[in-house]
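Attaching the record inline, Q. Sequence:
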Amino acid sequence: MSDPRLLGAEQKLADAKKLLSLPRIVVICGSTRFMTEMTEAELRETRAGKIVVKPGFDTKSPDALRSGPAEAEALKVQLADLHRAKIRLADEVLVVGDYIGDSTRAEIAYARSLGRPVRFTHPAVDPDA
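Structure, as predicted:
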């Protein structure tokens, strides 16, 4: 392992994952309209021995946390920031669903800018294909 004082945050995280003997971490991205498919993908990836993180909140379903437009917009920003943190933590990204909206497209671009491999359950929707 390299001298931690000379490493960037990304390398420190990679070294810590190795020291802890962590399995690969995959983050699931996609529209929350595909929550059922995300849960199925989570099961497959877990069976493959990976740690899986995915959206923890279905923004397409009504709930008490979003009582008005201002609260809904603030929650959307908070969830987007949280999901980008999940992408930074992950070793790879799995995009679920046969539709890519603006938010998912931005997540794919962000993941690729970090050098994360991106896989698709429906490869035809890859915006860079």
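The first strand starts at residue 25 and ends at 29. The beta strands are 25-29, 51-53, 92-95, 118-120.

More tomorrow.
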